[in-house]
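Consider the tokenized backbone below.
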């Protein structure tokens, strides 16, 4: 992963210090001076980073990770490379939260951007960009030519917006990289911190979210949508995918290209949506699911299992459309 320019990062830290922090009591004497540069996802980590694995569902990624160390549990050791140092802990996600706070101490909440200035101060800098009234722009913001930003919108520091984009009123964009020809309608919030925490009987512990939102070329976001940034990796919406109004993407959701998502659909964290998917209004997709290419999901459905390519489902819980129709016919015939 490229250097994270949205969040202040600390470190590197000795692996022994991290091990003590998360309650690992194994022998690290052979790597006395090893330092860890960052906490990364399985597929983005390099040989100076650490990562985590808390489910066998990600074994295809874990078996090829380049991370020098991994926070995990003993039943998952077999899914990691031999050279990867396994840090056995009681609660993987709690340990990940501890390490994330160590590297990124300010990322567990959305801090106010203190570097916002009126767009009127940047007219000479963004010569081919049209601004409405009361637009605020942060530091180091990139905005491509012929982009139009409507009134009362905020583009926070280090955000990148491509060419020919249209951004509506009362939009807030942070921690995001937006490609060319993207259309974001009024009231949407892009790059917010997601709903990440570790339940505790005394006090819930917030998890830092240090990822980004990536909107690829030609994406359309309807009014009053919320697109949460990734926790460790990124939240991604693929090329030419359109979202209707009031759609919510939780952290680390990845939607493919050429998808159509109707109003009030909700995606729980880390769901993977293929290309050419069509989802009817008010449907919900549970977390950590894989929805294949060209899948059609009926309105109001609740998806709780993976769906293979080219399938049509409907209902709660969602079942094949043919089976749903048969069940409806049986009920109506009674």
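A designed sequence for it:
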């Amino acid at each position: 992963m490229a250097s994270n320019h949205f969040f202040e990062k600390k470190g590197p830290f000795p692996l022994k210090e991290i091990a003590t922090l998360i309650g690992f009591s194994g022998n690290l004497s052979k790597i006395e001076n090893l330092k860890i540069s960052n906490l990364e996802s399985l597929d983005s980590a390099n040989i100076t980073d650490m990562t985590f694995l808390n489910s066998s569902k990600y074994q295809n990624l874990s078996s090829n990770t380049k991370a020098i160390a991994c926070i995990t549990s003993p039943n998952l050791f077999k899914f990691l490379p031999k050279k990867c140092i396994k840090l056995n802990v009681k609660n993987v996600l709690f340990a990940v939260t501890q390490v994330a706070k160590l590297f990124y101490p300010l990322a567990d909440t959305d801090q106010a951007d203190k570097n916002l200035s009126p767009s009127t101060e940047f007219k000479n800098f963004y010569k081919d960009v049209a601004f409405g009234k009361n637009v605020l722009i942060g530091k180091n913001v990139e905005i491509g030519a012929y982009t139009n930003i409507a009134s009362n919108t905020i583009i926070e520091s280090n955000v990148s917006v491509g060419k020919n984009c249209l951004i509506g009123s009362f939009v807030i964009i942070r921690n995001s990289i937006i490609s060319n020809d993207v259309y974001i309608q009024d009231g949407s919030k892009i790059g917010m911190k997601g709903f990440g925490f570790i339940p505790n009987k005394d006090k819930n512990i917030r998890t830092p979210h240090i990822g980004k939102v990536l909107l690829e070329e030609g994406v359309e976001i309807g009014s009053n949508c919320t697109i949460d940034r990734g926790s460790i990796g990124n939240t991604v919406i693929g090329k030419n995918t359109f979202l209707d109004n009031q759609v919510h993407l939780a952290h680390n959701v990845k939607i493919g290209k050429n998808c159509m998502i109707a109003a009030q659909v909700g995606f729980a964290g880390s769901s993977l949506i293929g290309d050419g998917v069509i989802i009817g209004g008010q449907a919900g997709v549970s977390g950590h699911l894989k929805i294949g290419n060209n899948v059609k999901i009926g309105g109001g459905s609740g998806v709780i299992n993976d769906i293979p390519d080219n399938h049509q489902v409907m209902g709660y819980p969602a079942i094949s459309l043919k089976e749903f129709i048969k069940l409806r016919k049986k009920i109506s015939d009674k």
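The helical segments are 15-22, 59-62, 92-103, 321-333.
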